């Protein structure tokens, strides 16, 4: 099995092929030889998250069923390992294909999964385009209110779950190596994006200044938690997306 960069389109001629024994979740498959695979670069909706009205989470099983339709038990699966090879649960991290369909791309296009950018330098353009198409056409989970991007003033509605938050950055601050993007004057209560030192170093390596976000409309994805106000902490610079060009000097 040959390793492949996560951001690159897979070269399926180098893939290993094995038989699917079971589909465990929206992103996990068990092979007949006992190995467990985890689709890299994507994430599924996970219980016990709930909607504002506390109704059951409806998308997790729908996403698993999509994967099972594409790669049912007994079918042949082609897969390529991606760095770092396995996760902390010892599942092999892979790009997968069945019946000629790139699983990540197809599941994103149908709105069954979300891009997971926590460890990626950049997503494959085809995967980013697939998620954007599903979002624009409100397919799958994007048709559900729980996954519609929220304005930063409504970020508290997403406490305790994964969400997409949009808004204009009011101010950018570097506090002893940790970055903060604030969206209102009272940063102690309003939505904030926190960039730990590891992410700040990656920004610097990419030649991007924290101050370049000031005045810009952005979309950020991640787990929303409470820290005075609603907050998302980035695991990767790729989790924040600029929605408009920089203003002219």
From TrEMBL:
Q: Which Gene3D superfamilies match?
A: 2.40.50.90
Protein name according to UniProt? Thermonuclease family protein
Instruction: Record the organism.
Output: Aquibaculum arenosum
């Amino acid at each position: 099995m040959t390793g492949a960069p996560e951001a690159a389109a897979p070269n399926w001629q180098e893939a290993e092929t094995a038989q699917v024994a079971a589909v465990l979740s929206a992103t996990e498959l068990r092979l007949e030889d006992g190995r467990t695979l985890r689709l890299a670069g994507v994430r599924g909706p996970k219980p016990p998250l709930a909607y504002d009205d506390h109704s059951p989470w409806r998308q997790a099983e729908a996403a698993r069923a999509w994967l099972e339709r594409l790669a049912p038990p007994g079918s042949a699966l082609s897969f390529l390992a991606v760095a770092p090879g396995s996760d902390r649960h010892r599942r092999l991290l892979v790009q997968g294909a069945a019946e000629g369909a790139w699983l990540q791309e197809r599941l994103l296009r149908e709105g069954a999964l979300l891009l997971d950018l926590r460890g990626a330098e950049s997503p494959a353009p085809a995967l980013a385009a697939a998620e954007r198409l599903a979002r624009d056409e409100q397919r799958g989970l994007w048709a559900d209110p729980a996954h519609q991007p929220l304005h930063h003033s409504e970020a508290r509605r997403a406490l305790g779950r994964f969400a997409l938050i949009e808004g204009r950055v009011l101010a950018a601050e570097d506090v002893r190596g940790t970055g903060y993007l604030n969206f209102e004057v009272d940063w102690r209560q309003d939505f904030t994006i926190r960039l730990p030192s590891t992410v700040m170093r990656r920004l610097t390596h990419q030649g991007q200044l924290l101050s370049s976000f000031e005045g810009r409309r952005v979309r950020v994805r991640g787990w929303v938690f409470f820290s005075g106000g609603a907050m998302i902490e980035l695991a990767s610079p790729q989790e924040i997306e600029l929605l408009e060009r920089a203003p002219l000097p």
